[in-house]
Every structure is written in C-alpha cells, then in structure tokens.
Design goal:
Elements (H helix, E strand, L loop, with lengths): L1 E2 L6 H21 L2 E4 L3 E3 L5 E2 L3 E4 L2 H4 L4 E2 L4 E6 L4 H5 L1 H6 L7 E6 L4 E7 L5 E7 L3 E4 L4 E4 L7 E4 L5 E4 L1
Parallel strand pairs: 1-4, 3-6, 7-8
Antiparallel strand pairs: 2-5, 3-4, 5-7, 8-9, 9-10, 11-12, 13-14
GO molecular function: endonuclease activity
InterPro entries: Nuclease_put_TT1808, Restrct_endonuc-II-like, Uma2
Protein name: Uma2 family endonuclease
C-alpha cells in the first residue's frame, strides 16, 4: 500500500519549506540525505509513506532511487485533517523502523513542536516546544529557535482568523 496525502495548506507548506531551508545545508555537511513530501519512506515491503521531511544518514539510502528505507528522523507538519492519522497509525508504522530515532510533529495552527525520541527498548520520550524555545533534533545534532519554522507563516486561529508570524 502506498499512502500519499496531497493538498496541504499554505501554512503547512511554508513550515516544511522553512525547516528544509534550515536543515539542508546542515545535513549535507554531515553526509545525510534529506527528502521532502514527494519522496517515499519504505515501512514494509507493502507499505510506503510520504512524510513532509525525512532524513537518512545510512549509506544504503545514499544511492536509493525509489524510497528511503533507513530514516533516522521523520517530520510531519500537522494539518487538522491529518493530525489523528499522523499521531496514531503513521507513528505506529514509523516507530517500527529500527533506524528511526526521532519523530517530529509540527503544528500548522499554533507555534508548537512535539518530538518523540527513541529511548531504551520500546520506550519513546516525549518533548514539547513552544514560542521562544530552542528546538533540538538530537538525531542529527541540530538546534534552532522555534520561530524560524514559523517565519512569515500565517496561522489560522481557532476563530478562523489569520495571524502572521515572523
């Protein structure tokens, strides 16, 4: 099964681009591969997902042509229509990958980032970041102020009003 989700909102897209812009030079320096939403992650021989961003530093993924198989970091920008899926089924699938060290969920409606980090055994550690926090992606040794993700992003408030950040 291949699962693709199309038609993300402009805030969703802007957040993903902001993060890609910050991460790309850094991951390139480390010899890692970063892919965006059109690139597949192979969960099992029958299941593929299209995360907003995925990073692999595994040698086997550096020459891959069809899908990443060993991501260490998967990032999903949450949308109201996909949030439940991202938090449940997709997280369950991604965490079945032995290579995965972090799963990141970024809100597109408020300034908030949630990170699940693999601990010992089946333990996953949960950290949340909000306005003025410095986000740490331990799997790739990257840090940045949360505001950089929301630079020039118009967020929808729960009243349906738009609010520009950055």
């Amino acid at each position: 099964s291949v699962y693709a989700m199309a038609g993300g909102s402009l805030p969703h897209n802007d957040i993903a681009i902001n993060l890609l812009t910050k991460l790309r030079p850094y991951t390139r320096e480390q010899g890692c591969r970063i892919n965006m939403a059109d690139a597949k992650v192979n969960i099992t021989p029958q299941i593929y997902r299209y995360p907003d961003l995925a990073i692999s530093c595994d040698e086997r993924d550096k020459t891959a042509l069809d899908a990443l198989r060993y991501p260490k970091l998967v990032i999903e920008v949450l949308s109201p229509g996909t949030e439940t899926l991202d938090r449940s089924e997709k997280f369950r699938e991604y965490r079945s990958l032995p290579s995965l060290e972090e799963y990141v969920l970024i809100s597109s409606t408020q300034i908030e980032v949630e990170i699940y980090r693999r601990g010992e055994g089946r333990l996953w550690l949960y950290t949340t970041y909000q306005a003025e926090d410095i986000i740490t992606l331990e799997s790739v040794g990257f840090e940045c102020p949360i505001e950089l993700l929301y630079e020039q992003v118009i967020l929808e408030t729960n009243a349906g009003e738009e609010e520009e950040r950055g």
